[in-house]
Each structure stands twice: as structure tokens, then as C-alpha cells.
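REQUEST FORM: STRUCTURE PREDICTION
Request ID: SP-0412
Submitted by: Lab K.M.
Chain count: 1
Length (residues): 159
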Amino acid sequence: MSFLHTTRMDLLERLTLHLKRDIALLAEGFESGAGVLNQVGKRFIRVDERYFVPASMQEIVLFDVRKKEEGPRVNVRTAYADIFEADLLRTGSDFVELLVNRVEEEEGLVILIPLGRILGSNVSSHDVCAELGELLAARSLAFRISMCVTNSNNARTKA
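STATUS: Completed
RESULT:
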């Protein structure tokens, strides 16, 4: 069984599952605010009446998503932000789906991050770390896993 819930789905296919629902986009120097995802094309998406290239975004926030069971806890390092902690929900062929709890938000946010924006991850389980490393290597992308540590104290605390 896969710890990472890896799918062959790409970012556009994942967004297609979220049609006619609210999303928010974040890119360098740009925040869209909430808007309705109206169309997903081969390279572009249409939110309200504006077009965007999803692979160029730093984050895509999905609203009105049923929270899935929590995945493995990871510390994610991206090209645009410091390390943050999240639950890894799914990895696709070119994105990761995370459940993130932010101080300014009332509840956890489900976000999609293109793999091109991920620099590395600290994972608390050796098995998950190995699988994430294999996934990134298999995609032949220039990523590195900064550190993989099995933390038995976290396992004891959760038990």
C-alpha cells in the first residue's frame, strides 16, 4: 500500500474534478482571492472570466473539499516560502495535494502545489521518505530530499 496515495493524475485532471467550485490562486506578486473554476483546458484554466496557467502558480487553494483522512505529516520546503508543516494527501504526476493548517485560517486548507515549486521535504517515516525520493527520481526532476529522519518520539506521542 502506498503511503503517498500516488496517482497518475496530472494537475489539470485534478482541477477538472473541482469544476464549478471555488478556488484561489497564488503566484509571485499575485493573489486572486476566491473565484469559481469555470473551465479546464489543455494548458489554461478559467477562473471567473480570467485565464491562468496552473503550472506557473505557487499554490492553488481548493475550497469546499471534503477533508480526506489525514496523510503522513511532512515539512515541505518550496521555492516561494519557508518550511511549513502539512498532511500529504496525494501526489500526482506533476503536483502534490496537501492539507495545511495556517494560523490565519479557521480550518485546514487543501492546496495543490506544482512539483516544480517543491524543493524538498522532511518526512517523519523512513518508508514515506524512500517512496517520495523514488517518486521524485522517477519524474527525473531536479529535486532533493533535504533530510529523512525516523522520529520514534512522534510515533510514541501519537499512540
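NOTES: The chain is about 15% helix and 35% strand.
Reviewed by: T.R.
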